[in-house]
Amino acid sequence: MNYRVAIIPGDGIGPEITREARKVLDRVCAIYGHSFEYKEILLGGASIDVHGIPLTEEAIKEARNSDSILMGSIGGDAKSSPWYQLEPEKRPEAGLLKIRKELNLFANVRPAYLYKELKEACPLRDEIIGNGFDMVIMRELTGGLYFGERKTFIENGIEKAIDTLAYDEKEIRRIAKRAFEIAIKRRKKVCSVDKANVLDSSRLWRKVVEEVAKDYPEVMLEHMLIDNCAMQLVKDPKQFDVILTENMFGDILSDEASMVTGSIGMLSSASLNEGKLGLYEPSHGSAPDIAGKDIANPIATILSAAMMLRYSFDLEKEADAIETAVKQVLIDSYRTVDIMSKGKTLVGTIKMGDLITERI
Amino acid sequence: MNYRVAIIPGDGIGPEITREARKVLDRVCAIYGHSFEYKEILLGGASIDVHGIPLTEEAIKEARNSDSILMGSIGGDAKSSPWYQLEPEKRPEAGLLKIRKELNLFANVRPAYLYKELKEACPLRDEIIGNGFDMVIMRELTGGLYFGERKTFIENGIEKAIDTLAYDEKEIRRIAKRAFEIAIKRRKKVCSVDKANVLDSSRLWRKVVEEVAKDYPEVMLEHMLIDNCAMQLVKDPKQFDVILTENMFGDILSDEASMVTGSIGMLSSASLNEGKLGLYEPSHGSAPDIAGKDIANPIATILSAAMMLRYSFDLEKEADAIETAVKQVLIDSYRTVDIMSKGKTLVGTIKMGDLITERI
Ligand SMILES: CC(C)[C@H](C(=O)O)[C@@H](O)C(=O)O
Ligand SMILES: CC(C)[C@H](C(=O)O)[C@@H](O)C(=O)O
């Protein structure tokens, strides 16, 4: 089959890691007889450098016309460029928020699991790790504080800023459904996280999630307050199967969860719309401090490409092939520096890409 | 000296643990020649049971007329009572939010440290623990999403809910000052946490914190995004000295931090106003499942009483005496069940209170 894939190299280590993912995809094409037509799109700092804005209308059009999007990472170096002093819409991140909203990518799926081979990289004690953890964070991605009205103004000589957290039942229902659909194929547990003892939006969240749950009687639903969940992820991450939550809480919990697993350089993510379009990207950031040094770990991006094959193109066996190749490289003891441990073989970004490609 | 202390036993294990703290305070009185006049105040579920509302005007007046307030814990059993279906102002938590606002307790100080004696209870690996951690979370407590306007309504047949996150420069300035004042007496590092790549309120937060920082040139200021901070607390908690953040982020981070230390049953907190009045309470919750069983750990509440002596009454040596007694009990191998480990002596709530009292 022929697929149009938009590639967003992005900032920092983004270009290096997407390059390795393309290498792997090319190999998949050659072996399984597909063809991918790539189109590069500028987003974030890379787009600001060329166009002065983080995302052009052209780029959005390009993305919309693709079958799916593979992204590296977005965001500049907070130390060298005080981006937070920029107008919101001129910041690199604004491009990412815009593409999420424009393409209606409301469902952010972030698997967080522990690689058995990388157990030593997990910050938690062996007793807590037990047989390992395997959870999925389902984060709502186009609502809440990220997209509510905001303003900064002076009132009686005092500067004041306001952000708004809004959700309607439709937005909650569609993401809740996605979470239950995923849970059904897994261990059949959904933990919905909110702050219903304080927020109105959380009370509505709970109510709608409970309604949706009625259609999935085989799935166990639990509610947890966000502060408690931030604790439980450290105390006993094994308890979680699918975590369902709103945009800002999901941002916090998914980063915490991926660090808890010790595998942040390994974790992929997908941002999906109602149909088949998705934006796939590693869970980690753009790490500008190590950009261009051939030391970044490309595995999360390569696994994001595998996720793309599975979710957007229904190419199950091709996705499996990539995932198996990654496992094999780990079994063969190759490690980038972020996951290095005693007795393993240290390799760089390009070499890691080659090793995985060879194994497909 | 004579002090008026309002006692809020609260819900769940609250009454048991405040009882032990009073026992310890009485001992301090006897030895150091002070007198504490106690007044019990109903708050939360306990107040709803008697008055139908979580906090009466009477109770607020009582609290306002005290020199300080010692609290157990608030909140019902989420399983047996679906409190989140109640009108917001009728929920137990509403009483706590109200007393914070009414008494202007804007500065929530939550120390999070690892007890050397309880190292095994820490979920993190020994390599990460190193020489231990010792940080303070300074959480803004009377602004942000907790106290912004909110509403739930129907628009075009769709139910919608809105919460508002607002901060003005004054609110930010006063909490930032408190954080720098504390940092000066510690390791001279403030990490201010926000989401300035998305929120207007966070951009104002950063700007004001930077202004305040100019008055404290000896303190190092760093900014961190909330999602990154949630990761860093797991990856390398040693890096933190004072974390300064807004209300909701502080709720999440302080719970995560106290779990990371493995000492949640041991951690006290203070909520302070501009003057000397404070509300002191354990960092943990009301644990209704173990209420009345004489197994709850009273140490966090006893240490909160010590914090009260230090911050509200300037009774340094008396506070030291309590803290030393707690340390001694741990050295003498006594443990409640939450911090129990092999070879130690298991004791209940009352016995733990007695053991600490004896050592003063
Ligand atoms: C870059 C930033 C705006 C973004 C977010 O907060 O959503 C990132 O942290 C993420 O999780 O994808
Ligand atoms: C009970 C609840 C409203 C409260 C909060 O969120 O502030 C609690 O979690 C706390 O941290 O003191």
From TrEMBL, chains A, B:
GO terms for molecular function: 3-isopropylmalate dehydrogenase activity; magnesium ion binding; NAD binding. Mg(2+) binds at residues 227, 251, 255. Gene3D superfamilies: Isopropylmalate Dehydrogenase. InterPro entries: IsoCit/isopropylmalate_DH_CS, IsoPropMal-DH-like_dom, Isopropylmalate_DH. Its cofactor is Mg(2+); Mn(2+). NAD(+) binds at residues 285-297. It is an enzyme of class 1 (oxidoreductase). It holds the Pfam family Iso_dh. Pathway: Amino-acid biosynthesis; L-leucine biosynthesis; L-leucine from 3-methyl-2-oxobutanoate: step 3/4. It is found in: Cytoplasm. GO terms for biological process: L-leucine biosynthetic process. Its EC number is 1.1.1.85. The record marks 146, 195 as: Important for catalysis. Its main location: cytoplasm. It catalyses: (2R,3S)-3-isopropylmalate + NAD(+) = 4-methyl-2-oxopentanoate + CO2 + NADH. GO terms for cellular component: cytosol. Keywords: Amino-acid biosynthesis, Branched-chain amino acid biosynthesis, Cytoplasm, Leucine biosynthesis, Magnesium, Manganese, Metal-binding, NAD, Oxidoreductase. Substrate binds at residues 100, 110, 139, 227. SUPFAM superfamilies: Isocitrate/Isopropylmalate dehydrogenase-like. Residues 4-356 form the Isopropylmalate dehydrogenase-like domain. Binds 1 Mg(2+) or Mn(2+) ion per subunit. Homodimer. Catalyzes the oxidation of 3-carboxy-2-hydroxy-4-methylpentanoate (3-isopropylmalate) to 3-carboxy-4-methyl-2-oxopentanoate. The product decarboxylates to 4-methyl-2 oxopentanoate. Belongs to the isocitrate and isopropylmalate dehydrogenases family. LeuB type 1 subfamily. This is 3-isopropylmalate dehydrogenase. The lineage of its organism: Bacteria, Bacillati, Bacillota, Clostridia, Lachnospirales.
